[in-house]
Design goal:
eight-stranded mixed sheet; globular; Protocatechuate 4,5-dioxygenase, Chain B; three-stranded mixed sheet; alpha/beta
Length: 271
């Protein structure tokens, strides 16, 4: 069972050559260098014309030798109970098929995650990450989780499950797929997004909960919290901001924007 692309030609080019050139331009044009100590990134999931540069900066910052990529994304079109892991053989894009990491997927299913097929059929938030993965790490395998429950309690449980499932698999990267605030003026969006970014950089999931109460917004807050909890379980304390931008950069309209953020977590640099 191969999951077919549903937003090719809309969110990103349907022509393989054009898609390859565009994604590579986002990665190389970011000016970011790879960091071998990064184990997780936050990457946006809008149309590439809007968020591709931010996603490119996120993926460029990750290590060069990633073998397994776990994409945690929020569902937009179908309600998901808990977490749904894609239990197929691959995700296809115009660039080909990204193979699903069957052993990690199997471990996740045995640990209590389910496969809710309807949720994956039309969801873009995971799909738009795949071309970046295919071009950044052509030989890697993927795991796709749609996280429906966004509470910190559930994110902590999911992080525990993931940390157990990846044991024995080095060179694994977690990708939390999320956009930030939606449809505010640029001035308001910057204030709301700053709350989320500062909470993320703090590395403390409790600070993220406070940021949400204080008006911060993120459509993929569940995946972000799972990434933060995962880093805590792994005793990784380094969090940072890579890039922030809004849709106004592409549209020229600052009256109603969407915020995009790239961030990272990983091991501390040893002096």
């Amino acid at each position: 069972m191969i999951r077919k692309p549903v937003v090719a030609g809309a969110f990103y080019p349907s022509d393989a050559k054009s898609l390859e050139q565009l994604v590579n331009s986002f990665i190389s044009g970011s000016g970011r260098s790879s960091d071998d100590l990064i184990t997780g990134i936050v990457s946006p999931h809008a149309g590439y014309i809007y968020s591709g540069a931010v996603a490119g900066a996120a993926f460029a910052s990750a290590p060069d030798d990633v073998k397994n990529v776990i994409v945690i994304a929020p569902p937009h079109r179908y309600p998901v109970s808990g977490g749904s892991v894609y239990d197929g053989e691959g995700y296809s894009t115009p660039l080909g098929t990204a193979a699903v990491q069957r052993e990690i997927t199997s471990r996740l299913l045995k640990a209590g995650l389910t496969f809710q097929p309807e949720a994956h059929q039309s969801e873009h938030s995971a799909e738009v990450q795949i071309p970046f993965i295919q071009l950044r790490w052509p030989d890697s395998s993927i795991v796709v989780i749609l996280q429906g429950s966004s509470s910190n309690d559930y994110s902590g449980q999911l992080a525990e499950i993931i940390s157990e499932a990846v044991k024995g698999y080095d060179n694994t990267l977690i990708v939390a797929s999320s956009d930030l605030s939606h449809y505010h003026s640029l001035e308001i969006a910057e204030k709301k997004d700053r709350k989320i970014i500062e909470a993320f950089v703090s590395g403390d999931p409790q600070n993220m909960e406070t940021a949400l109460i204080q008006g911060g917004e993120a459509c993929g807050i569940g995946p972000i919290l799972t990434l933060m909890n995962y880093a805590s379980i792994m005793k990784q304390k380094r969090f940072g901001r890579i890039m922030w931008e809004t849709s106004a950069a592409a549209s020229g309209d600052s009256s109603s924007v969407v915020g995009y953020f790239a961030g990272f977590c990983g091991w501390e640099v040893q002096e």
